[in-house]
Each structure stands twice: as structure tokens, then as C-alpha cells.
Amino acid sequence: MNAENLAKANDLLHRFPKKSSALIPLLHLVEDEFGYIPEAEVQVVADLMGVTPAYVEGVLTFYTLFHRQPTGKYLIQVCRGLSCQLNGADELSRFLYEELGVQRNGTTPDGLFTVEEVECIALCKNAPAVQINLDFYPNVTKEQLRSFLDKAAKEVRSGA
Ligand code: FES
Fold first, then answer.
1. Are 102 and 80 within one domain?
2. Which residues constitute the domain of residue 116?
3. Is 126 exposed, middle or buried (0-12, 13-18, 19+ CB in 10 A)?
4. Residue 69 domain-assigned?
5. What is the reported pLDDT for 160?
6. Contact 128, 79 (CB under 8 A)
7. Distance 89 CA to ligand 1 centre (A)
8. What are phi and psi of 106, to 5 degrees?
9. Residues with CB under 6 A from ligand 1
10. CA-nearest residue, atom 1 of ligand 1
11. Is residue 68 situated within a structural domain?
12. What's the 87 CA to ligand 1 centre distance in angstroms?
């Protein structure tokens, strides 16, 4: 954890009556800094909280929003909840897998895109829905995804 996040972590630990209540926010700090939760950071978080690494691992394996491996610059999460399934989510996932040449939870060799299928992201009324990094997209079509992939790849190639 860098110095800035370490300071934030110590601040967080003082906000909760029990240190263990700060676990999820601490893991978010790590995920934001590294893009995933490296093994060494599990120990750092455990030490900060005064718990065992196994305790931290137990929480990590329960919450799918944390990643144990590096993800691509763009993390594309296709909702696989019922509303989205009924409105074409499978087709969107298949499109992304074929277009990017990856499998589920896979990352392109250039490290640009990771594709995941996730549980409901609370846009059921506008299914199918996709989340890309921190942005949510309702009523997504394959054409919109193609346009996003092209734009993102172009931006990266031009160094934007
Ligand atoms: S089922 Fe996809 S957003 Fe809820």
C-alpha cells in the first residue's frame, strides 16, 4: 500500500468501533491502488487490522467484487441476472468473448480488456446492463459494445 493509502487506512481504522469493521473499505483501497488484491497486501491488511491473513482471505473469497489477479485497463462486467438473461445478456457475453478472443474472466494479451459475468448490477429495468470500470450502461447492444471496444483501443493506441 502506498503512503497515501496507508494514511487513509489508518484514518479508516479509527472511524470504526471495531477494527474488523474496516476490512471491506481497506480492501477497496488496495483494489483501487493495484487493480486487484496482491498476496502481499493480504498480509498488510491483516497486520493493520490485527487479524490473520486467513481471516482476510475468507472475506476475499466471499466477495466477487474483489479480484485476486490483475484485470485489464477496462473491466467489462456483463450482468447475468434474470432480467438481463431474458434480454440478451448471453448474446453480449458471447460477442465480447468472440470479439476479444477471451474466455469468461479472461483478459486480452495486451492487458486492455477483461470480461466478467456478474450478478445483478441494479439496472434490471434497463436490461441488458453492463458495467465498465465504474460506469454503468443500460439497454446495451452489441453495436454499442463494438463501438466502445473500437474507441478504447484507439485511445490507447494514440496514448490518450
Ligand atoms: S438483472 Fe441485470 S441489472 Fe438486474
1. yes
2. 74-157
3. middle
4. no
5. 61
6. yes
7. 9
8. -90, 155
9. 79, 81-84, 120-124, 127, 129
10. 81
11. no
12. 10
Which residues fall within 8 angstroms of residue 7, CB to CB, at 6 or more apart? none
Closest CA to 53 of 35, 69, 41, 65: 41
The answer to the question of residue 46 being in a domain is yes
CA distance 88 to 99: 17
Neighbours of 25 (CB within 10 A): 14
Which CATH number covers residue 97? 3.40.30.10
Query: Is the backbone peptide bond immediately before 128 cis, with ω within 30 degrees of 0?
Result: yes
Counting atoms of ligand 1 from 1, which one is nearest the CA of 79?
A: 2
Q: Which three cell numbers stand for residue 157?
A: 493506441
How do residues 49-101 score in pLDDT, each as one tens digit? 999 999 999 999 888 789 999 999 999 999 999 999 999 999 999 999 999 99
pTM of the model: 0.81
In this structure, what CATH number is given to the domain that contains residue 33? 1.10.10
Candidate from 123, 131, 136 with most ligand 1 atoms within 8 A of CB, to mutate: 123
Q: How many domains does the chain have?
A: 2
